[in-house]
Amino acid sequence: MTAGLEAENAVRLPALSVRDLRVLLPDSERDIELVRGVSFEVAAGECLGLVGESGAGKSLTGYAAMGLVERSGLRLEGTVNVADVCISDLGGRRLSRIRGQRISMIFQEPSVSLNPAFRVGSQIAEVVRVHRRTSRREAWDRAIEALRLAGVPNPERRAREYPHTLSGGLKQRAMIAMAISCEPEVLIADEATTALDVTVQAQILDLLRELQDRLGMALVVITHDFGVVADICDRVAVMYAGQIIEQGDVRDVLYRPQHPYTQGLLDAVPRAFETAAVVGIAGTVPPPDALLTGCRFAPRCPYAQDECRVSEPELMATGRDAMVRCIRHSDINLPGVRRAV
Amino acid sequence: MLEATSLDKSFVVERDALGRVRRSLHAVDDVSLRVEPGRTLALVGESGCGKSTTAELILQLQAPDAGSVVLDGQELTGMPSKLLRATRRRIQPVFQDPYSSLDPSQTIGSGLNELLAIHGIGSSRERVERAQRVLERVGLPSDPRALSRYPGEFSGGQRQRVAIARALIVEPDYVVLDEAVSALDVSTQALVLQLLIDLQRERELGYLFISHDLGVVRHLAHDVAVMYLGQIVEHGPAEQIYKRPSHPYTRALLDAVPDPDPDFQHARRTRRIVVSGDPPDPTQRPAGCSFRLRCPFAHEVCAQEDPSLSEFDGRLVACHFASDVLSSDFSADGEVVEAGPA
Description:
The structure holds 2 protein chains of 2 kinds. Chain A is an alpha/beta fold. Chain A has a domain at 110-183. Chain A is built from 11 helices and 12 strands. Chain A has an 8-stranded mixed beta sheet, sandwiched between helices. Chain A is globular. The N and C termini of chain A lie far apart (56 Å). Chain B is of the alpha/beta class. In chain B, strand 13 (328-330) and strand 14 (336-339) form a beta hairpin. The two termini of chain B are 34 Å apart. The interface between A and B is large, with 50 and 46 residues.
């Protein structure tokens, strides 16, 4: 009976669940909110994109979900659950035990994860040994297996090398190997393909897809690139000025966006297979300490009316797993991404 | 017309104890380009392919080992520096990172004034007027207070506008833009791209636009040259290159660009050329065609003979199998599945 209930729970519980996440920068007068109440869930085997421009708070959201912001003097509010474990309440060693084992993260710059002073294989084996009770030998074998899974050719030889001897693409693969070495349930990729050449980016996206299939991970892809979103994500949350402003199935959001900012971004992307003129969005993202009443996008929004400046809009449900933070969403009709020719 | 012919540049990477060259990098190998007034030539390729070195050779920031750069019939390579200063005014650079290319301790106004003074343009009052006009044109505040602001007081997009203003104030005929919009967020990038397009139309500017971003290039370039390991592998009208790529590397690059139309992207991502691995170490270029080790079309001849850039289907391409590349489809694992007649 209990086992049956647990199995049912395991099916139902999202792999990652983030509730009303806030990241605050303590300030003498009032705390500055950098992430302003973000909620999302990602199921096992599913890929969620967090997309937005610089200053949207998407990377900070990722770091916060990993419990990585408090060390930098920021304060975290809200809850983060990995399956049935609430990791936002955990501190110190108990959090460290989960991080790297059940949830891990990869970055734009592999040097964030890879220590230049140690061999690639030893660093990965160290992660394995911290989380699993294995012998050195087993941990080393596991490290080589992780490198192989991450598509590193000749993993036995590469494991003995230092990070600086690897090319950019291989470093990225080594970092991914480290992140998946304990087969985490959740992997957060923070602009993990942004600095790579486009042919290497395509390889790494294929790799992430393959690993996700194989390990059944929940994947969170943080990116500024709608091409990457269309390529790999099942669902997407568009962020602006610290908030999610629209969320839903990728095809719904890209073909039938409900928020003017989503449409604005789609119209601004210069595409290789579509030649209609790109249109920018005038103005800039409001700084996090700006005292704004009303919608934070209103100053730049072509559809804004007086009512938009009265109070901050809530994130409204508009369908199954579809949400938008715009009071005018049902009055306006947005064309979505142009079909490629 | 700004014309570079057969540019060559190598760098010594490593010497032995006797000072003899052990390893060198052929950064630019027989590169010829032509930039015409009112048109944009884009030079594309991945990091380390030699595109930025090519820009530096054309800007006369580095001397080529061989080859020439000619501006309207006047040879620039080897020109005495006094004479070069006058011609430099006509070719202005805009670089990627406006954070490092602008002096943080100099106000915008004084920077612009200094550029005009170097080229002996205008009286001091005229210089201020010119500075205000150019700032206004690039969409920045142009009142006297704006002139006394420092680069640090501007956002990224505004700083790139300042960099464009600095290039424009001396009224050049050609602008070399090296990853000039790459660091900007899309909503700002689109505005700066539109500004570049408008300025080109207004002033008949010739652009050499260096970029790794094939989306951006599609929206600006009339002609495209694709670089791989120091060499141009395909060169022609943008429409031809994007719609009918005939070098396997061009095709691999285009296939790898993810597009935001989900249905289109899903359909194409399963049918693309897959190039294995990273670009090889540029100090150890393979004999023959330098792309052959990653190329699904490579045959024996590719190892023996480095293909020369030659006419094919309305553009130049350096591949023994260009017609196969043009007519082939790919399976989900990147294998060539059909190579019909071109």
